[in-house]
Design a protein that fits this description.
The structure holds two protein chains of two kinds.
Chain A: H1 4-9, H2 11-16, E1 18-22, E2 28-29, E3 47-51, E4 55-64, E5 77-84, E6 89-94, E7 107-117, E8 124-132
Antiparallel strand pairs in A: 1-2, 1-3, 4-5, 4-7, 5-6, 7-8
Chain B: E1 6-13, H1 24-39, E2 48-52, H2 56-59, H3 65-72, E3 82-85, H4 91-104, E4 110-117, H5 126-131, H6 147-161, H7 166-180, H8 194-198, E5 202-204, E6 207-208, E7 218-226, H9 227-232, E8 238-247, H10 262-275, E9 284-286, H11 292-301, H12 331-335, H13 339-355, E10 368-375, E11 380-387
Helix pairs in contact in B: 1-3, 4-13, 7-11
Classes of the chains: A mainly beta, B alpha/beta.
C-alpha cells in the first residue's frame, strides 16, 4: 500500500536517517519537525537538518506474530524502539539476529534494507532496519 | 455565562460481535432508534446528531457517516445538523464530549451520539493494516508496527522495570471475560481461566490473543439533554459531572515514557478537579483496555494505583464485588472493541449501572462511574465522570 509520491517524499529521511536539530534548545528530532515542540515559535527558522549516526540501543522490543498482509513473509519479526545516540527514539525492525538474542539495552546500528513492496509489480519500499552490534 | 447541566436520558446498543448479517447502517440505525425509544422522546425532538466512527472510510468505503446515520434513522427530513467525530478508537468519548459541550453552551437541548464500527467486512488480516492507520503510518506502521506490537513493547519494559508478572496482565482479561459472561450484548460470553489467558497463541510477544481486544462489529448510542429540557418534560437521567480530553504525541516513540499515558493522566486529573469528586468515590470504572497492559497502565494514570503497582488491584479489587469494579460491561477484551462505538458503549453501560438495570452484572449501590476512552497507544484520552443525584 502507499502511493509513489508518499514513499518518495520520505526517502531522504528513511535512506539517510535525516533528522533535524532545534537551534534554540539543541534537541534533535527524528523524523524532522517544522517546529520544536519545546521551543515553539522561538524555533521557527532555526530547525537545522542533521544526519544521524544510526547507532543506539534497544529501549524495548517485541516479536510480532500477527502481521498485516505486507509483512506476512517476514513473520515472526522483531520490532523495537531504538534510542539513537543523538537522542531521538524511533521504531524499526531488528534483523540478522536470532530472536532470543535480542535484549533491552543492547547496542544496535542501522542498515539500509527493503521494507516492503506494493504487490508483485508495485514499487519496492526501502528504509532502515537495525542489526545488533 | 450560560452553562447548562448535561444529562444522558437514554441509551441503546446492538449486540457486539461478528455480525455478518448486518451492515454499517443497520447497526447505527438499530442503536440510535433504541436510544431514542429508551429516552422516551421522538426523533423529531433531536436537535443535533454526532456520529462517531473510526475506520468506515477504509473498511467500508463509506465516509459522511453523520448524514448516513441521520438519513436512515429517519431524521433527515428534520434537516438537523449531523456530523461525524473522529479521534480513532477515542471517537466515541470525543463525540460524547462534543455533544456535552453543545448542550452546556446552551445552543442545543437534545443531542444524539451514535457510535458505530463495521469491521468484519474485510477478510483476514487486511483489517490489521487498516487498524494500524491509527498509528503514525509513515514512522511506525510503515516499519511493521501494529497496535498490538506497540502495546507489547510497552508491556515488556513495564514488566521488567516494575518486576510485574505476566499473570497480572492476564488477570485483566480474566476479569473482562467473567463480566462479559453476564452481559447479553457482549462479543464473548465465555469465562476464561488464568491458564487459558497465559497460554493462548502469541500475537506480539509478550502479548497473546487473550491480551488483545477482538475485531468487533457493533453500535452504541445515547441521548443527551439539558437540565432545563429534563425539567420541562419531567424526565430524569444520568448526569455528566465532568468531561475532559487530552492529547499526547501520536507516535509511541516520541513520548518520554512508554508506559505512562500522559493524555489519560491529565484528562483524569482535570475530570476529578471539575467534578469535585475523589478517586475513592467511584463505584466502578470502564477502562479502554484494548490490550491488557493498558488496563494496568490506565489504573495507574487515572490515579487508582501508583506507577508499577496496579498489579496489587487485580486479584480482588477489580472484580464485580470488589473495592473498585473494573469494566462491569466486559471491557474491550470481552464486551468487544468496535472502535467508534467503544466509547459510547461505556456510557450505555454506565447508564444501566447507575439506573440499577445492569441485571446480573449490577455493581451494588452504584453511584458514580468513571469512563476512560483512548486512541491507539494513548495519543488521545477522554475521561468522563458520571452519576450522582
Amino acid at each position: 500500500m502507499g502511493e509513489l509520491s508518499r514513499i518518495w517524499r520520505e526517502s531522504e529521511h528513511r535512506y539517510r536517517l535525516m533528522g533535524n536539530r532545534c537551534g534554540n534548545c539543541n534537541r534533535v528530532f527524528f523524523p524532522i519537525r517544522a517546529v520544536c515542540p519545546h521551543c515553539h515559535r522561538e524555533s521557527i527558522g532555526k530547525m537545522k537538518p542533521m544526519e544521524l549516526s544510526g547507532r543506539g540501543e534497544i529501549v524495548s522490543f517485541t516479536i510480532v506474530h500477527d502481521t498485516p498482509p505486507s509483512f506476512v513473509r517476514q513473520r515472526p519479526y522483531a520490532l523495537a524502539l531504538i534510542k539513537l545516540d543523538e537522542g531521538p527514539v524511533l521504531t524499526g525492525q531488528i534483523v540478522d539476529a536470532e530472536n532470543d538474542s535480542i535484549e533491552m539495552g543492547k547496542r544496535v546500528r542501522s542498515v539500509f534494507r527493503k521494507i516492503g513492496e506494493d504487490g508483485k509489480s508495485g514499487i519496492i519500499q526501502y528504509g532502515y532496519k537495525f542489526v545488533l552490534e | 455565562m450560560l452553562s447548562e447541566n448535561v444529562f444522558v436520558i437514554g441509551a441503546g446498543e446492538t449486540k457486539y460481535g461478528e455480525l455478518w448479517e448486518k451492515s454499517l447502517r443497520d447497526l447505527a440505525v438499530e442503536a440510535g432508534l433504541k436510544a431514542i425509544e429508551n429516552a422516551g422522546i421522538y426523533s423529531r425532538d433531536v436537535q443535533i446528531l454526532y456520529g462517531s466512527n473510526s475506520l468506515a472510510g477504509i473498511i467500508n468505503g463509506q465516509e459522511n457517516i453523520g448524514s448516513l446515520i441521520a438519513d436512515f434513522s429517519g431524521i433527515a427530513s428534520g434537516n438537523i445538523p449531523a456530523v461525524r467525530i473522529e479521534a480513532s478508537s477515542a471517537s466515541g468519548g470525543a463525540a460524547v464530549r462534543e455533544a456535552y459541550l453543545a448542550i452546556k453552551s446552551g445552543e442545543y437541548d437534545v443531542a444524539v451520539v451514535g457510535g458505530v464500527e463495521k469491521m468484519t467486512d474485510i477478510f483476514g488480516n487486511e483489517v490489521l493494516d487498516m487498524m494500524s492507520s491509527l498509528l503514525d503510518r509513515e514512522w511506525e506502521a510503515f516499519f511493521g508496527a501494529t497496535p498490538a506490537a506497540l502495546a507489547a513493547i510497552s508491556a515488556r519494559k513495564y514488566m521488567k522495570d516494575f518486576n510485574v508478572k505476566k499473570e497480572a496482565l492476564a488477570m485483566m482479561s480474566v476479569n473482562d471475560h467473567a463480566n462479559a459472561s453476564l452481559n447479553p450484548n457482549s462479543h464473548f460470553k465465555n469465562k476464561i481461566t488464568l491458564d487459558q489467558a497465559l497460554n493462548a497463541t502469541s500475537v506480539a510477544e509478550p502479548l497473546n490473543l487473550m491480551d488483545c481486544s477482538p475485531v468487533t462489529d457493533g453500535a452504541s448510542a445515547i441521548v443527551l439533554a439539558s437540565e432545563s429540557y429534563l425539567k420541562k418534560n419531567k424526565l430524569n437521567g444520568m448526569r455528566i459531572l465532568a468531561s475532559a480530553i487530552s492529547q499526547d504525541y501520536l507516535a509511541l516513540h516520541s513520548r518520554d515514557s512508554i508506559y505512562t499515558l500522559d493524555s489519560t493522566r491529565i484528562a483524569a486529573d482535570e475530570a476529578f478537579k471539575r467534578s469535585g469528586l475523589k478517586r475513592e468515590d467511584m463505584s466502578f470504572v470502564e477502562l479502554h483496555d484494548s490490550y491488557s497492559i493498558y488496563g494496568l497502565m490506565e489504573l495507574e494514570d487515572l490515579g487508582f494505583a501508583k506507577k508499577g503497582e496496579a498489579d496489587k488491584l487485580v486479584e480482588e479489587d477489580i472484580k464485580l464485588g470488589g473495592r473498585l469494579p473494573v469494566n462491569p460491561s466486559g471491557g474491550l477484551k470481552a464486551k468487544g472493541n468496535p472502535l467508534g462505538a467503544t466509547g459510547v458503549g461505556q456510557f450505555v453501560e454506565a447508564f444501566l449501572q447507575l439506573k440499577g438495570k445492569a441485571d446480573k452484572r449490577q455493581v451494588k449501590d452504584a453511584r458514580y462511574g468513571l469512563l476512560q476512552n483512548m486512541a491507539g497507544t494513548g495519543s488521545t484520552s477522554v475521561v468522563h465522570i458520571v452519576g450522582g443525584d
